[in-house]
């Protein structure tokens, strides 16, 4: 076996091992729960597409309730990772404290293990459509938001990083800034051959995306979307912020995606920093993303 094939085989074996354990590792209960201030509100969306209630949280600017009724705010959507839930960002980081420095609304949707994709196997698991068609309109109706793409951003960690990148690529008219922290960007291409059948990641990916070369895979593979995107559409894309820890098992996947962005001349920033697939890294990077949001989403 030549060196290249041997390296690829070792990578897939490592990927199978890590996927079996790493995603559940970061989802363990936090050592100390973050106390939530009055600016954090919890709601349930009565989703027709999902045929059930979908919870979400909203972090409001500290001056929101005291501001003039003619004052409107940008919105940032933050997506959680695999085995996580809508409350992760507020419970596992000091998001409300970080958000207090800025004048935008932050929304944390529920994604369960649905990969922010309309499932190929469960008709009512429409984790892409419900966010785009129901949640965002509800937030715009409930709060004083600035409703155009120039005032809306989306970001996420791991599975949520994949989801945010995908949303930015598929709905460029809706977002001006997209962020991915340790994104599982190859999700649309990972099959039973590379993942096996066991573990939360394998079961969810196979359930959501289906068999190899399924229509769901073809339309939700972010590498394929970028690779086949014409130059005129690339000009409409939001700015992409992509980062990953150099010790993260998804590091090479993120490097490959960043290389593709360079090749296709997609406006972006890629940061590779010391770190692994954990909340310490994401806690740091969400602060960086909020700083970037202030500069771009005004």
Molecular structure report:
The structure is a single chain. By secondary structure, the chain is an alpha/beta fold. It has a single domain (3-26, 38-296), classed as 3-Layer(aba) Sandwich (Rossmann fold). The chain is 41% helix and 17% strand. The protein is built from twelve helices and eight strands. It has an eight-stranded mixed beta sheet, with helices on both faces. Helix 5 links the parallel strand 5 and strand 6 (177-181). The radius of gyration is 18 Å and the shape is globular.
Q: Layout of SSEs?
A:
Blueprint: H1 3-26, E1 40-47, E2 52-59, E3 75-79, H2 88-92, H3 95-99, E4 105-109, H4 129-142, E5 152-157, H5 159-170, E6 177-181, H6 192-195, H7 200-209, H8 215-220, H9 222-227, H10 231-234, E7 239-245, H11 251-263, E8 268-273, H12 279-296
Parallel strand pairs: 3-4, 3-5, 5-6, 6-7, 7-8
Antiparallel strand pairs: 1-2, 2-4
